[in-house]
């Protein structure tokens, strides 16, 4: 006999318009609708559970988030410790630095004549413009900063900490890099060579052959040690790209050294890419389970949406609803001032994975 | 000499987190970010301008909006006259009828075993379930209703008005069909044969060879006459499909009979499809201008987002911010009770386009 | 103990470049690669199996296939009986008629200024142009034809048969409509009101109030009877839209009248839409199984690709590889000349579903 | 007066089925259809023109191309010098190494239970499986190789050359890395830290604190010097990601040192991502012009398609049609054996950009 009741338990609750609703209330009621609206609402609940659990929360940020007006959301998440570690593309950090230094991005049009923009040295990111001359100046500013550092390799994590510190000292302005410096939240940038920060470093090298050494292998070790130190982890991914894989790679690498590592306990991703072309950005969280990147019993959700819509809604609602959970949270305390990070006062080993069972 | 100031006028304003923000405030601040977040915020402003102008607002609804929990938003838009005419797929009206009759859709999973669902006669729409036995009952209910109607062709507009009336009398419940009946807002369903409403009609025909005649050609004439009567029109499209083209076709057909018709003055579409495969659902609003579907000076915006995220945010903010504009609006008054619609007391001609200059 | 061999059976075979390869050979070797390349190659094999089985093959065509240069592929499939029944949007039939009448579509650019196009009365479909004056002439030609028909309702299937006949008599040119007429292959157009064919019909009505009656309810019955007559069916979908649902609806409706109907035995779809927004165009074939649209043991594949790339490759390879299978195929013989279709000499009942077990 | 003839010059030529057609012929006839089919055909012509011009051709490869069965196409392009420089994700090189070492990827299903796969240590890439134990062995093999290298920083370019050399000596098998070694074609991997190659390097470091130093800043300088040496360049992008930006960054950085650099003269990209979310992967080639990444008069085309469909078709047709052009081509001769690359016998400067006008 058919047993429909297994499947027909919780009805969809049609969304009703409450004109003065708060974002928190809106998203709460979206939990009972369908499709990506429901997924966005679910994402908030999963993030809340990450905060209520004792776990290390990684956030990966790809796409033109900073140029597009979302950098202060990331700064907020860092400052208030909704996350413990940021993995970013170079562009997001570079455009953050651009604004922290007092420059702006501008409202533009995706249909402007790009030949005219080139002529006027305006760089376009879809519907957003920037002044290329200011970008050239940023590159030189980064190069000048890099030239002040002693000649040795720096992980991207250490370099970005020092860059954030310098930026804070110079500007006193809030942004991703400065918030991370002040909150001692580590930032990794595994693809730093593929960004204007990398261009600044190469200009430093041009002037001084010993400058501009970034040790990306050290980044792999340090990010893996973060997982080895506390294998209870969570992954939040905005947009895919290198940050998504780097976060997942850390758990795979950690499992190689300690079989107790089982993958992230929580995962949420906000992506516009799709799985069926085989690329990592669009890969499902189920696929991540086959690799052990994600625990098979993880709580997880994928939201198929533009981050520029999803993130303002999600973080506003989270900030309203998770106040107590956040207040009760005891985030990891990092010391990022040296070449080797310390967590809760205990440094990682030098150039080594922390001992597991291998 | 370069003149960057032409392009660099209005800076992007980074979005900041205000935990207790209203949806209205959230969307207001999203006007100054980039990408689809900005477009969603712009959509609200354009809709406001539609309401403040004396124009006829068409809304097209494709995609599983009713099954997915958005039907009461559409009912709200109809009841409060944010729109003047709905063009819908059959499915959205059918799933609305299903719930108005007291049945529900259910929270499900896109990863359930569909063979098991088939066995238990559960129909799945991505992450949403319905009881197929209830659908069979709906079909028969629609057939029974159709059998009560005198033998003659009915435009989908007239049929849906009568269906809404009967549904209201039977249930007294709010929904798309009943709200449209009560507010005398016309609904067209150009693809009615491609839906379970069509299936109900065919079951009526099976029992009575003279029943179930829908006159879709009449729908074309009546929708065109709406444009001819007042060529100042606006188009809101949710998801593309037949409703999108039908709304545009009305202006093209109207222009054939009256060269003063110049296309919609306002247009907003929320779509997930893209232009580059050549299909109508993803076509840009610029392309629509080549056809004269849209005035070349129209205010317009495309939001690339799932309607299940975009619509709750958009309509909540609109309802908060457009109160006065809406109160001042004088929407067209329709009489929908006969085979030929009357507008402001004046009926359209029988089986003819209203005289223009042709 | 781990048993990897369950999963690791058939290796991916890296594709190698053979400069003079035939399309048939290319696609054969693509069966051993991954992602959508493999799916496209699999689609050919499934279509071959449809041809080798005794089943009724439905093909649904949405998107601007005719304007985009694919209409003679559809004509080829009809003429050589790779398919038994076409379900099309009105636009594809209209643009086919346009070319069969000797007019052309033109190579254009998606970046042209649409205001200039409007001024010159050029209609744009992404990167393709048409002369709007010729479209106006087509509409009037269709209206004039519709005015020659006796006053009674016509299913879209009967109307399109008569239109194809007239078009053939007038032009003697090959196209979708004329090939279907000559091969007696039925065409359904459930959304005919949403197309320029519908506009032509409305112009006929404008001149003669008794003209232009299309009986879309009759289409539902006739398409369902096709399934009831031989429940062994296959579904090929290009692009989603109303044709996709109409093909599936026929099996659902048929099952209502005959519980022996179990859904399509084969299904292949070439779509660019995705499942996670809940719309029917992007719905997976698994989801179709929950509804009984597709048999739970059906052979099926979804190809995520633009039809303008996939179809030329797929049909060329199919035509090369399936010669013998096609020669052995005994396609259904239809008589389409009257209001009620006959199959293998036996007409369907008038205004009724063919008796099943209900 | 209207002048339609400006726009209506070249008609779309409906594609006809020629069962035994070669891929070359197929693609030639697809030049006269529309949408992405036309774009794919155009891509071949633009690549031909790159080959016929005296320019440096960069190819960027992102997405799971090697796992998905496309690695020997890349090897073919390298060996026959259809390209001059490869920029790749680490994953594509790693999966290439995996197969060159004699292991395989396997045909799988996107719907398999990932918990079972995890249990059996099978890694899934959409519809493709790999043996995780073999991956672990690869990592250790890479680590062992890295430990043989003297302690100093290596650009990814130099490291990959040495890895290809070693791989060739060990296996004698054809693949991307070995073909590039044998043809002295440089490979850059700007995101090497975000891949299993990076994991292997980190395991080397774990064993020997002086091992595994990759100098990504050096990669920026060397790739820029390639552009400075001969500013006439072309960009071919498969799938976006870090390779796409790295290729474009090289021209931007080069322009900083030499104002004669004007951006790529030719560009073709095959992507599935879209522009409207603001990410670099989906960015249009027009947008690239605003940055000076692409010359404003460049010949360019974007193909929206899965590389697993587009690449086999494109390269097969190119190989057939461009034989003479290729034979006449004089590709740059590289010496890659040292830390600093030499081109046509002339090495780049040490740790410096080659002198331009800055």
What is the structure about, briefly put?
The structure is a homotetramer of 358-residue chains. The first copy, chain A, is of the alpha/beta class and 358 residues long.
Notes on the protein architecture:
The structure is a homotetramer of 358-residue chains. Chain A is α/β, with parallel strands linked by helices. Helix content of chain A is 45%, strand content 15%. The first copy, chain A, contains 14 helices and twelve strands. Chain A has a six-stranded parallel sheet with strand order 6-2-1-7-8-9, with helices on both faces. A three-stranded antiparallel sheet of chain A has the order 3-5-4. In chain A, strand 4 and strand 5 (128-131) form a beta hairpin. In chain A, helix 1 (23-30) packs across helix 2 (35-52). The radius of gyration of chain A is 21 Å and the shape is globular. The N and C termini of chain A lie far apart (53 Å). The mean pLDDT of chain A is 96. Chains in contact: A-B, A-C, A-D, B-C, B-D, C-D. At the A-D interface, helix 5, strand 4, helix 6, helix 9 and helix 10 of A face helix 5, strand 4, helix 6, helix 9 and helix 10 of D.
Q: What labels would you give this structure?
A:
homotetramer; 358 residues; alpha/beta; six-stranded parallel beta sheet; three-stranded antiparallel beta sheet; 12 strands
Structural class of chain A: alpha/beta
- Main beta-sheet annotation of chain A: 6 strands, parallel
SS field, number of helical segments of chain A: 14
Greatest interface and its residue counts?
A-D, 84 and 83 residues
